[in-house]
Amino acid sequence: MSLSSRPLVPIVADTREQEPYGFDARRVRVIRRALPAGDYSIEGMEAVVAVERKSLPDFVSTVIHDRPRFYRELERLRGYASAAVIVEGNLMDVLGGRYRSAAHPNALLGTIAAITIDFGIPVFFCSNRQAAARFVEAYLVRIFERTRA
To answer: How many angstroms separate the CA atoms of 89 and 131, rounded?
Structure first.
């Protein structure tokens, strides 16, 4: 099936996202709407599919200074059929302590492992915003296509 004959994937971007990702308009139709959890989902699947997006500084700050709120969000996402945390940054920056926080890299690494193992939610490091946007698009398009097959 050619790209032009595929239906546009209806991706929902949460209204709290101040600078939502730009996706390929040949593949995706973006809808702005409040989501129950996460920052991105698929229209009609908002209660079962979610992607939580974090910049590296936001991820570090959230898991260190706002852990209870973030863990409540992860508890909501735990029940989703597909959920993921996308970090716009490099894991080597975490391991090397290249972020603005006194948090030890091992504390962050332990939190990443806990999110993945304890909550069952994968954490993907996507090096930068552009790579993260491409990954989120591919992730949500794949889920959409699998549900339509």
So the answer is: 9
Separation between Cα atoms, residue 13 and residue 34, nearest integer Å: 8
Q: Which one, of 29, 19, 43, lies nearest residue 132 by Cα?
A: 19
Angle subtended at Cα 27 by Cα 22 and Cα 36, rounded to the nearest 5 degrees: 60
Provide the CATH number for the domain around residue 76. 3.40.50.10130
Q: Which residues pair with 82 in a beta bridge?
A: 49
- Please count the structural domains in the chain: 1
- The boundaries of the domain holding residue 98 are 3-148
Q: pLDDT confidence of 7, banded at 50, 70, 90? A: confident
The per-residue pLDDT for range 40-76, each reduced to its tens digit, is 999 999 999 999 999 999 999 999 999 999 999 999 9
The rounded radius of gyration (Å) of the Cα atoms in the chain is 16
Tell me the C-alpha distance between 18 and 7, whole Å.
27
Tell me the CA end-to-end span of the chain in Å, nearest whole number.
13
| pTM score of the predicted model | 0.93
pLDDT at 1 over 70: no
